[in-house]
Write a structure and sequence with these properties.
Length: 133
């Protein structure tokens, strides 16, 4: 058994809580991506098959759903990154490392690319809606 001080035990507990918080927001992010796309596809199929609404309304509604999903995903991504930074700071305090791990993460990452792509696709769907009027 490793002999730890009370302060180290508190930091390890905080690290576990931060890790659970990060996993929570990461899972919410992926769930939101799936929900936004499934809802947009079902909405588009329903409005297309029923033939209701003015021209371009189907595409505009679908684009709005995709854009709203991207906004929520962006907010969840910011929370996940904040939790990761806090985890790294906590780990640095536990292990007495000089450089934080998050300083090496300079690229946007796949999750950011998904949000950007979703925004681009929603704009493209809006353009299709405008051109179909």
């Amino acid at each position: 058994m490793v002999d730890r001080t009370l302060g180290q035990n508190v930091l390890l507990t905080r690290y576990q809580v931060l890790a659970a918080n990060r996993r929570h927001f990461s899972a919410l992010y992926f769930g939101t991506v799936a929900f936004a796309w499934i809802f947009a596809i079902v909405l588009w199929a329903t409005l297309t098959l029923t033939g209701r609404g003015p021209p371009g309304m189907t595409e505009a509604m679908t684009g709005l759903v995709i854009l709203a999903g991207a906004f929520v995903e962006h907010r969840l991504l910011l929370r996940e990154r904040s939790a990761f930074k806090a985890m790294c700071d906590c780990w640095r305090a536990i292990s007495n490392e000089e450089e934080a791990l998050y300083s090496k993460r300079t690229l946007p990452g796949a999750m950011s690319i998904v949000v950007i792509a979703q925004c681009v696709i929603s704009v493209a769907v809006f353009v299709v809606a405008i051109l179909s009027v």
